Every structure is written in C-alpha cells, then in structure tokens.
Amino acid sequence: MSSKIKIAISPCPNDTFIVYAMLHSKIDTLGYKFEVDFKDIQDLNKASERKEYDLIKLSFAQVPNIIENYVISNSGSAIGYGCGPLLISLPKNKELNNKSKIALPGANTTASMLFKYFYGDVFEFKNMLFSDIEKAVLEGEVDAGVIIHENRFTYQDRGLHKIADLGNFWETKNNQPIPLGCFMLYRTFSLKERLEIQSIIKSSIEYAFENRDEVLQFSKRYAQEMEVDIMLQHIELYVTNDTISLSEKAKMSINNLILPNILEKIPNFEENNLYVD
User: Which residues are catalytic?
Assistant: First the structure.
C-alpha cells in the first residue's frame, strides 16, 4: 500500500480540528503522507460508495452500505449526548401531517435515518445541503427541516421553532449516546497499517486539544465565516473522549444503530469485523 493516504472530510470545525496535526506533520505520521479533500456530508457518503478515498468521514447511517469495503476507526467519531439533529419549523408549522414537506441533509445521513426511525416515511422529503435548510424553512419551501452541525446554535436567532431533538429521542429510548459520524479506513490496508493510521488519528486529536489556539486558526479557514464562539461550541459538542477512542458504551450504541441494517444486507456479517480493533 502506498504511503500516500487520500482523505475526505467535511469542512466542519470538528473534522478540521481532528486532522490538523496529521495533515501538517505536527505529530509522527509513521511515514504516511495525507492529502485531503473537503466535501458536504452527503457527498462524502456518495464518495464512499465509489471507493474514492483511503480514509473518509461519513455518516453512521451510511456504514451498512459500504461496510464490505471500509472499516470503522476507533478514533475520530462524532458521538455523544445533546449533539443530535434537530427538527425545526416556523412557529406556525410546528404540527406535522402526512402532507408536510420535510428538508433532510442528504438521504444517507444519520439525521435522515433518525427522522424516519421516529416519524416514519409518510412525508414528502427534499434532500438539500445542510446549510440551506434553515433558509428553505424560513422561505416556506418546506414545512420543516432536520438541521445538523452549527445550525443547532443559530436556528433560534432566526425565529425558528424546535419541534423535536432527534438525538434526545435516541438517548432517552436507548440510554446511549447518539452516533453521528465516523472515520472509516479502506479494507485493503493490512491490519498493521490500519492500526498505525488509527493511532495517527488519535495522536492528531490529542495534539489538537493540547494546542487548541494553533489548531483553531486552521479550522477558521474552512468554517464558512462562522463566529468563533459558534465554532468553539461546535468542537466542544462533537469532539469528545469517544472521539479520541470509542468506549464500550459508544460501540454498543453504534451497533444498536447500524448492525440490524448490516445484517439485513450481509446475514453472516461478524460484529468483530466492524472496527479496526
């Protein structure tokens, strides 16, 4: 396997915070060189189906579709409490019916999966870029929308109403954190290479926490003119101890979310093939 590793992530602060040190050789990268592309989360999900990248950040909801080609890294995941997608609307539209038009941030996102898990699929759906959903709700293009990322921190300032916290629904029902996204490695890497790259991701996150001000300057470049306080909230919400290394409780929640769908597609799939180690 080449020592050049092609990465794809979103430009969101939590992703750039994670990869800064490994991209800029601030840590020992064990001879690997990392090249990065930035994409919207749904574009990342689609890219994983085309097997374009060696290391890719994607939605946990997408994992069952590509698990034969990729394996979950124990470092790099977005999983936690109070960080799930929100269902929002204008105050006048807070009651949904089967004629309601719902904006989703991509068909294969965890946000879309959670909405359908709790509300069903009887609605008319419109998939769009996550950053366009608030505007679509405000302009009446849709009746409600499922928002993710930094929009969690801004929707109230725009006069929008929270119908439901889908992450909280999951946490309450299962007493588990909500799995949102993960880094996955292409399965053509040997076990030794997988473990090495996983350790680099972990070291990169640890460097970011120890050198926060330095890393934030990098994250700002990709944060779409996001206010610094919003960017900090974003990182604090989505980069947790489980991002550094998945706990057993985090893995239980991930398995609960995605294993049933994996087993539908691959009945003989073994759980120990889900993670790098």
Answer: 149
